[in-house]
Each structure stands twice: as C-alpha cells, then as structure tokens.
Design brief:
mainly alpha, 9 helices, two-stranded antiparallel sheet
Length: 214
C-alpha cells in the first residue's frame, strides 16, 4: 500500500516537473523570439542578398518518442549543399563519422558568422513553441544518425531535443562525438529542472565565448 502511494507520488512529481519545464519553454521561447526578431530579420536579409533563397533550412530530425519533424535553421551553407555532399564520397564519409565537418567547405561567409554566434539556430524557437523541441535537452539527431546511439537510443527518445544542452555549454564542437552521446545520456538519466536552469544560465556565456562553434 505504502509502496503504491510512493510510486503514485513519484509520478505526480515527475508530471508536475514536466509541466513546469513546458511552461518555461513557452514563456522564454516567446520572449526570446520577440527580442531577437530584428536580428533574425537582418540575418535573413543578409542570406537573401548574398546567396539567394532559401533563407530557412529544414533539417529532418527525430523528436520525442521517435516522432520526426523539421527543425528550422537559417541557411548557412550554399543552396546545393546536400548535392555537394552526395557528389563527394570523401566528404560524405567524413561527415558520416561525426555528423559534422571540420572546416566545412559548403559554409558561406555569412553562414560562418551566423554559426559562430548561434544566430542560425534562432528559428528553432518556433520548434519550441510548437512543442517539437525544448529550450534545454539532448542534441537533435537525424533518423540516420539515431543508429549510432545503439542500445541507448531509447533514452534519447524520452525527451524533446534541445536548442541548448549540456554538450553545447561544455565546448560545443570541440567535444568528441562519443563523448557528446555520453553526456546527453547522462543528462537524460539524471534530469532535473534545476539542471535545466543551470544549463540555461550558462548558455549565453557559451555563445558569447564562441569556443567550439563551427
């Protein structure tokens, strides 16, 4: 009887924390989107004038419970970036090792600036408002990349991917791929609202510091 009551209390506590996390997402994402609207407009104009359309890049990723969605980003690469990757076997092989490229030749000059200051990720605030992402969470992965998580893939699908997260405030692209996976899984298995708040407070410094941004 007591054990059942404790389990019920634990579920209610977890549910309340989940609601609090979602309310934090909605309020902060709406405020940030409003505050950064002028920056977004200027960045979009710069992309349009320098390399044309599209301004927004849609990346197909896996979200909560394995549901796929399009994550929005300002386009930072040449318009035919996917085709260039498909045409170059060496480039594609390098990309598939870490799902990132060192000094990616497809990134435009404007794109490099946007990436350095994480301005390209601001459209993902819309994904947060739509309930597809969270402000703080594990790194988003594509359907093909999910297989690299192997036996811990189910852990990754327990939460919405985050606009920021533990690996972003710990070095961003300087963190080796396997370590990024480990950090995300540890975050999920020991999640707390206070941990999210701590990561959120560290995020502006990580962006301004710009170390590991590529």
């Amino acid at each position: 009887m007591a054990e059942a009551a404790l389990k019920s209390s634990g579920r209610l506590h977890a549910s309340a924390l989940s609601v609090a996390k979602r309310l934090m997402d909605l309020s902060l994402a709406a405020g940030l989107l409003l505050a950064t609207a002028p920056v977004l407009a200027l960045a979009a104009a710069a992309i349009l004038l320098s390399s044309g359309t599209p301004v927004i890049h849609r990346r197909r990723v896996v979200g909560l419970l394995g549901k796929e969605f399009d994550a929005f980003k300002l386009r930072t690469m040449v318009p035919d970036a996917d085709e260039q990757l498909a045409r170059d076997p060496a480039l594609r092989a390098s990309f598939e090792r870490n799902y990132k490229l060192e000094r990616d030749p497809r990134v435009t000059r404007i794109g490099g600036v946007l990436r350095k200051w994480s301005i390209d990720e601001l459209p993902q605030l819309v994904n947060v408002l739509r309930g597809e992402m969270s402000l703080i969470g594990p790194r988003m992965v594509s359907p093909g990349e999910l297989s690299k998580y192997r036996e811990v893939a189910s852990d990754l699908l327990r939460a919405r991917p985050g606009l920021s997260g533990v690996w972003q405030v710990s070095g961003r692209q300087r963190i080796e791929y396997r370590q990024r996976v480990t950090m995300d899984i540890e975050y999920l298995r020991s999640w707390s609202l206070s941990k999210d708040i701590g990561i959120a407070l560290l995020t502006p410094w990580a962006i301004l510091n710009a170390k590991g941004a590529k």
